[in-house]
Every structure is written in C-alpha cells, then in structure tokens.
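Record type: ASSEMBLY
Status: queued
Input:
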Amino acid sequence: MPEESEIISRLRKLARVTGEVLVGIGDDAAVISLPGGKDLIACCDLMVEGVHFRSEWAPPRLLGRKALTVNLSDVAAMGAIPKFAMISIAVPPGFRAEFIDDLYKGLFEMANASGVKIIGGDTSSSRDSLFIDVSVIGECESGRAVTRRGARPGDRIYVSGSLGASALGLSLLEDGFRLDGSNVVSDAIRAMSRHLAPEPRLQLGRALGEAGLATAMIDISDGLSTDLWHILDESGCGAIIHADAIPIAKSVRSFASDAQGIDALRLALDGGEEYELLFTVRPEDERRIAELLISSDVALTAVGEIVERGGLQLEREGSLEPVQPAGYEHRFGVK
Amino acid sequence: MPEESEIISRLRKLARVTGEVLVGIGDDAAVISLPGGKDLIACCDLMVEGVHFRSEWAPPRLLGRKALTVNLSDVAAMGAIPKFAMISIAVPPGFRAEFIDDLYKGLFEMANASGVKIIGGDTSSSRDSLFIDVSVIGECESGRAVTRRGARPGDRIYVSGSLGASALGLSLLEDGFRLDGSNVVSDAIRAMSRHLAPEPRLQLGRALGEAGLATAMIDISDGLSTDLWHILDESGCGAIIHADAIPIAKSVRSFASDAQGIDALRLALDGGEEYELLFTVRPEDERRIAELLISSDVALTAVGEIVERGGLQLEREGSLEPVQPAGYEHRFGVK
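Status: finished
Output:
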C-alpha cells in the first residue's frame, strides 16, 4: 500500500477546488459555500480495530464516543459548529449485541451533549475487524471557516489544554494497564481516560471562528510537531516554539518524574490523538485571546511564534534545534 | 451481532426526526431543511471485502465506481441531485499501489460523469479486509425529496430498466466465471458487468423528483420484493404486482432458457444490487410518465398497483400469491 501522504497528494491533484467548494481535500474538513449566508462543513474519520484501537482495552461506550469526538474536533478546528452525523459500522462475528448497544450509546451521548443529530448510517457484517466511519456535517457563517493556511510571520501560536497524556495513556494500555483494572494508579487512569475519551473543543473552536481570531487552526490528532508542520506547510512559513512554554499534562509530568525512560517534553511534542486545538493569532489580537480565556472552559497557552522560514524549531535554554514532524501518521486527508 | 433490522429500529427510536431534519434514519438518504429554498440530502454506504465484494473478482476500477454508484443511486431515489462525496478507505497489507490507484480512478471517473466533487475522506490501514465507506451530499428543491412513505391505494408501481441480471452475475462470479476470463459467454459478461458496474439512475431520479411525479421511491438494492415491502411498510398499504409485467433482464431470460435450475422470475423479484428505481405514481399522472419515458435514457415498466392492505401479492395467471421480502439484507439504514 502506498504511503498515506502520497495518496492524499495524488487525491488533491485529482480533486481540484473549484466553484462552491471553498476548501477541499487536505484540511480538517471541507468547506462548501451555501446560498443564504452559511458555509457547510463536512468531514469523515475512520476508526479501525487493530489500527486505531483494540476492542480488548476500549470500552464500547467510550469507543462510540471517541468515533464521534474525532470528527467534532475536526469541525471545531474549522471554527465551525457540528450539526449532523452519519455512522457506518462493520461488525465481525462474535461481537455481542451489548457491545454494539453500548457503542451506539456512547455515540448518542456525545451527539446529544454537542447538539448533533444522527441522521443516518450504514451497518454491515465484517470478516474480522470492527470498523467505524463517522461523517459529520456542520456549518459556519459564510467565509468564517478557519483553514491551515492563514498563519503569517509574527502570529503567536497557541494550544488549548495540556499535551502528552493521550500518548502516555496509549502506552499504558499497550503495557497492559486497563481503565477498570486494579493495577492502576490515579495518574494512569487520567492518562488512559484522556486517550479513550478525549473532549472535542467545540466551544473554543466556535468562539475563535466566530470572532475571526484564529488565522490558522488545526486539531492535534497527529501530535503538536506534525500538526504544526501541517500549518507551516499550508501557510508557507516557519515557526519557533519554546520548550518551557509547552503545556505538559500533569499526569505526564508526574509519570516522567517517577519512571525512567519517559521524556515528558517528547510526549507533549509528538504525542497524537490529543484533540486539543492548535491555532495562530495576530499579535494585535493577543489581548482578545486573554479575554476569551476568561469565558473559556479550557486553558490556552502561547507556545511560540510564526516566523518567515526555517521550518519548525524548538527553542530550549536559549538555543534553537530543528524539529521534524514525528507524530504518527495513521490518518490523513480530511481529518 | 444483533440483526441489522433490529439495530435500525433501535437507532430510529434514539434519533427522532425533529426541526430541520425532515427525513432521518430509515430512508435512502436523510433530508435536511436549509435556508434558501433548498433541502440537503445526505447518505452513506459501506462496502466490505468478503461481505459486499471479493477483491479477486472485482476489478479495482469497477469497485471504486460501484462504491460511489450505490450512494448516487440513493440520492437518485430521493429525486435529488448528488453534489459532493467523501471517501473513507481502510486497506489491508498486500494491496499494491496500483490497486488503490485504480480504485480511486474508478471513483473519480464516476464522480466526474455524474457532476460530483470529491471533497474529502480518510484513509487507514486495516488488519485484513478492504473497507470502503462513501458519503454523498446532494440537494433538491425545498420539499421535493421523495421518501418511501407517500404511496397511496390506486397508485401505479413502476420500475426502471430490467431486473435479475445483477443477482445472476453474482452467482456466475461465485461459480468462478470472471469478467476477463476466457470461459465466459456474452450473456454472462452482461450479467457480471451489471453486478460489478451498475449505473445510477440519476437523470430519471432527478426528473421524477423535480416533476413531483413519484409519490414514493426507493432504489432496488435488496431486491424488488424487499424494497417494495419497504415502501409498503412506510406507506402503510399493500400492493399487487403482475408476474408477466416484471421486466426480466434479457441475459437472465437467456440463461434461464438454457440452464436448469435458474428461475428467471425469482431472480428478478428477489435479486439485489440492481440499483434500478422503484416508484409509485398517481393514476392520473400515468400519461406524464409516458411523456417522461420519451426523454428518458432508461425503460420504465408498470409492474402493479398499490392497494389498501394485504401485504405484497404476486398475480400470476389470474391467481394471487403472497410474496415475502426475500432479498438479502446485508445493508440497512440510510442506504
């Protein structure tokens, strides 16, 4: 199978953006111009057993929740509001009816909590793996969608929440820890919950979009380093981020201080599936971000600046080092 | 795993139709009211290796084409126009780059031929089977979407094209015949092509929708008998169809006359994946159907009438026999 990034670059060539398609393949979601002052937002995200999750460690309710969350996060990253969802699911033999019930329960819980209506879907059997594909349709005011391409030199780089816990949670799950196991401690539960039940930053994404405050935005699904690279690639500029400024999750700091071999900064830089928002802001709008923070349900941290060129560099104790995109790439395209 | 029809009835209860959702789970596609005189149509359809196709007999270009076609057919069955598509695909190890390229080639060919823009998607690896999930967004004039629920006693029942060839083609493929094999005869190629490369009835569906001519409509994916049952269930009435009137495909008639054990009528009644349109028309509109036929690219045949009750009955040589829905049900929901 060809590299996923190769497929997407070929697809982008095939599917040129024209007419009412304002943003096509290659951003968090597509944007379509509608008559009547609104733009339509559309995205889909696939979760495949053995690739994105293992059914032995992902409780079905959380799995259903997350399958929708990753799409809601994409819509949030466009500064838009999710409205409708469709769910396609293929179920291998041996899955009990309760598993499927719980999975849908999680999906509907997240849909209800975020004001999204489930309008359709498809279900099939499958030979071996469980497969969940969710499509979400959303909307925003005409011309307000935030893409990856608007960052300009001088812009400040912000990230919501804290980072690293999802990747830590994943490695704990891989090591045999379980959410309901007796072998877990509180920081481990926090990290695993972060991986299994991320929160979409809907309120923040919408507020940034409606206020026109973000010049570029993406959700952190592949990791801060890789996702910032996506913004730099699309915007045609470079960035410097400051090691000291990166908001490392408390559970990660605590694990790193106890356990050898855990590099907290590396987890925060490269860990994927955070579903925090990464966005850039014009320097003159920094005060408005501070105001937004007051009414926001999530922390916002300035982690660096957009510069003319030089790719992505990490400033640590006064010296700069290049950062390659090291987040894992199992997903691509509109994600 | 619970029965698919059970899952859908539970989902329909969870996802009640309210507000701007005019049609939710359980029709060929969902219908959403938009400001500005248009309704939005949305559907998705899953194709799973080993369930819906086998990669050893489905050329990848035709597979890509069909993955989109089955969705276009759903949009046509709503009397609407498809506009945009998203493609999610999970590819197991061992699939060559050319296979994926050809699959996308088929998808884009069908998209271009039908005026549909590919706006996004997702790609993943998978452990074992190839999965393709396509979502399509379309539109129609406000209030013009044709559902399964508008059939009334006295309405005439029509079907487009001819029936039975897809099921015959599938059984030939299962018996080892191949599209490019030397062991095939012309009728076999015709039947297998019908199964592997069905045509969406876009022009007809749109014309029926825009003219307000169909009181209920569905595409034949599960088989004439099962899909007519869907209309009867949703519309709360019965139907009589006439054995002599059912348009049996030429390849099916020809095979049935040569081969023992092939029941041509049964194939036409119960064979799925035809993607012909099945619709009902008020008796006073029959003349308008005749006019439509002149400009249509496909045959239309009156096969029966909607009656008050009595389920679905087949009239054969003057006597009536009940018909159970016997089409296969591997897909459900919005399909």
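Annotation: The radius of gyration of chain A is 19 Å.
Annotation: Chain A has a mean pLDDT of 91.
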